[in-house]
Design goal:
About 55% of the residues lie in helices and about 10% in strands. With about 50 residues, the protein is of the alpha+beta class. Strands 1-2 form a two-stranded parallel sheet. The N and C termini lie far apart (about 25 Å). About 0% of the residues are buried.
Length: about 50
């Protein structure tokens, strides 16, 4: 099953929220980042940028 990641889960991961990191690990390989989340990246954290 594919999942579309929202910026909130990525921000929580970058802020060392263990639950967010565990979730990302569980969907590794099946997750996609939306165009909106990618566009928000430069505003919040360059780590979201490709």
């Amino acid at each position: 099953m594919s999942v579309l990641l929202d910026s909130v889960i990525l921000i929580d991961h970058f802020n060392d929220q263990g639950d967010a990191t565990a979730y990302l690990q569980s969907v590794h390989g099946d997750a996609f980042i939306s165009v909106v989340t990618r566009a928000e990246g430069p505003e919040g954290s360059c780590r979201l940028c490709p």
